Amino acid sequence: MARFFTVASGSSGNSAYVGSSEAGILVDAGISCKGIVTGLCEREIPLEHVKAIFITHEHIDHIRGLKVLLKKLKVPVYASTKVLDYLLTNECVPPGALLETIDNCTVNVAEMEITSFRTSHDSVHSLGFRIHTADDRLIGISTDLGFISDTVQNGICGCDLVLLESNYETSMLMNGAYPYFLKKRISGKEGHLSNEDCATLLPQLVRNGTTRIVLAHLSKENNMPDLAYQTSLNGLTAAQMTEGKDFVLTVAKRSETGDMIIL
Q: Where does the Metallo-beta-lactamase domain start and stop, copy by copy (predicted)?
């Protein structure tokens, strides 16, 4: 059976495991190597069961532990060509690391098919992933996106489980202490996704088969887990959908390992 859990999720670091009890992948390595290994151990996934690392983009909260982790774990790193070039140029990976592009293609790792799709973010290049597991489950991962494009919708629509960004609450951001330029960046088309915009998409996902929704990449300063959860729940309830019957909604933990979800 397919397994999914977040090792960490938030503006300070991100990583998630997707696979089975025997083999899987990490999506991002944005916390320390020690933190990743500890999180996997907490969910009884030995490090050697990780067969590849997929990187959404090059920001530090997605690659912080990558270099040290690759010294322990000799597996390929998949990312866009632009991100791979960045990792090499900035010495974010150890010498001899196996780097594989996932531009506009599907790759097979750990008996899963992983397809990338473009997201809008102010990085050298940013991706989401659609993962088809060995037991015919679909998992969609999409964080760090300024808006929900048609490409993003197509990438996650029809997935059994979706990890979707719910980064900030608009009034908290706009009334908070951040300088104007940073507020503009976060709320812009290449920034992050608000609670409200996240909630707007969820009914469409549930109508197309999504039963597990995990809200991710919450801002520490401009959001609260209960607020993100309630905004999404309100959007789903307004669409006549019932929690526990039509969907299960959770919020990924910032600095703790998330619960194992078995599909």
A: 12-181
